[in-house]
Automatic annotation (TrEMBL):
Keyword Ribosomal protein recorded: no
Functional description taken from the UniProt entry: Associates with the striatin-interacting phosphatase and kinase (STRIPAK) core complex, forming the extended (SIKE1:SLMAP)STRIPAK complex. The (SIKE1:SLMAP)STRIPAK complex dephosphorylates STK3 leading to the inhibition of Hippo signaling and the control of cell growth. May play a role during myoblast fusion.
Main location: membrane
Lineage of the species this protein comes from: Eukaryota, Metazoa, Spiralia, Lophotrochozoa, Mollusca
Quaternary structure note: Homodimer. Interacts with myosin. Interacts with SIKE1 and both associate with the STRIPAK core complex composed of PP2A catalytic and scaffolding subunits, the striatins (PP2A regulatory subunits), the striatin-associated proteins MOB4, STRIP1 and STRIP2, PDCD10 and members of the STE20 kinases, such as STK24 and STK26. Interacts (via FHA domain) with STK3 (when phosphorylated); the interaction associates STK3 with the STRIPAK complex.
Listed name of the protein: Sarcolemmal membrane-associated protein
């Protein structure tokens, strides 16, 4: 079996299908071209911000490596760029659970003057050795002598990633809210312009009605030739007014259509923003809960350590007391032994040799 790398799309990434890449040889990561198209088993992405030869991913001597191959927009591991743009980086060892980013978000203007953002590739990588073991990072905090649990770097790093993503989404929401406010302002201006055009149209119609009344009065008070000439003049003015009114009405309808379109886009953007806000809120709450749990576990381990220290101090105190007691008993026994020796000597001096022979 060969080593395996799985790239999972992050919510803030340019969308792509999850990749399962077999690392039998160094795998190229880059932008799709005519001869290299995206697939579930390669590192080619349909993303404009990637270079054709963006990076290399391979497995060697039990370790996974990633290298930037002179890309324009850079390669990032856990939000750290490997090298400057246009330079080739050194090989960077990576682990399962790392956040891998290829390129950066790029904003450009389209033909209509609107700004379009081209997203980059952001993924969570999962790595497996040829024997099926996951290539996890080494824990940096371990307390084997204390009861409780072990806090690993992956947990804290995942928590930091959640917080960074929440901050990023908060900034994106602020930008979208500013855009929404600008769209609402433009829609209000377009509506005011439409109402003004309708008012002008009403004025033109009223003017036409007044002219028709004047024409009727002139037909009674003037000769037929004069009336005919006046009619021709009025017809020309009427045609001119009607043309102006139709043009104004066309502009009003076009502005109204643009306003309706912008309002629809605004509603969709607002719906997407609310969904993203809800998602960010859930992630923030989840991150806060995890942080609270880690803090509680840390306090529990501190309490256990304090309890062990108290027990150790109590045992040392008991050992000191027992040692003092043993020394005192030894001293007393020594004194008794000396007394018994003195008594034995005194008895020996009192006993005479003649008394022993007589016996």
């Amino acid at each position: 079996m060969a080593a395996l790398a799985i790239l999972t799309c992050r919510p803030n990434s340019h969308p792509f299908q999850e990749r399962h890449i077999s690392l039998t040889e160094p795998i190229k990561v880059g932008r799709s071209v005519a001869r290299a198209r995206p697939a579930v088993n390669n590192g080619i992405f349909d993303c404009k911000v990637l270079s054709r030869n963006h990076a290399l991913l391979w497995y060697e001597n039990g370790q996974f490596y990633l290298q930037d191959t002179k890309s324009s927009n850079g390669t990032f591991v856990n939000n750290q760029r490997l090298c400057k743009g246009g330079e080739e980086s050194t090989a960077r060892d990576i682990f399962s659970g790392d956040l891998i980013q290829f390129g950066v978000d790029v904003m450009e203007n389209n033909r209509r003057g609107d700004k379009i953002t081209h997203g980059c590739i952001i993924s969570t990588i999962t790595l497996y050795h040829p024997d099926g073991r996951e290539a996890k990072p080494t824990p940096f905090l371990n307390t084997p002598n204390l009861p409780g649990i072990t806090i690993q770097s992956q947990d804290l790093y995942q928590l930091a990633q959640y917080l960074q993503e929440a901050l990023h989404r908060e900034k994106m929401l602020e930008q979208k809210l500013l855009t929404l406010q600008q769209l609402v302002h433009n829609t209000q201006e377009a509506s005011e312009s439409g109402w003004q055009a309708l008012i002008d149209e009403d004025k033109l119609l009223s003017r036409l009605e007044v002219l028709e009344n004047q024409l009727h009065i002139y037909s009674k008070n003037h000769s037929e030739d004069t009336v005919r000439q006046e009619c021709v003049t009025l017809q020309e003015e009427k045609l001119q007014y009607e043309t102006t009114a139709k043009e104004s009405l066309r502009r009003v309808l076009q502005e109204k259509l643009d306003a309706v379109t912008k309002l629809s886009d605004l509603e969709r953007s607002l719906s997407n923003s609310e969904e993203e806000c809800g998602h960010v809120k859930e992630m923030c709450e989840h991150a806060q809960n995890e942080l609270h749990q880690l803090a509680e576990k840390y306090q529990e381990q501190l309490a256990a350590e304090k309890e062990l220290k108290d027990k150790l101090q109590e045992a040392e105190q008991k050992l000191t007391e027992e040692t003092d007691k043993a020394e005192q008993e030894k001293h007393e026994l020594t004194e008794k032994l000396e007394q018994m020796l003195q008594q034995e000597q005194s008895l020996s001096t009192k006993v005479k040799p003649g008394s022993l022979t007589s016996l």
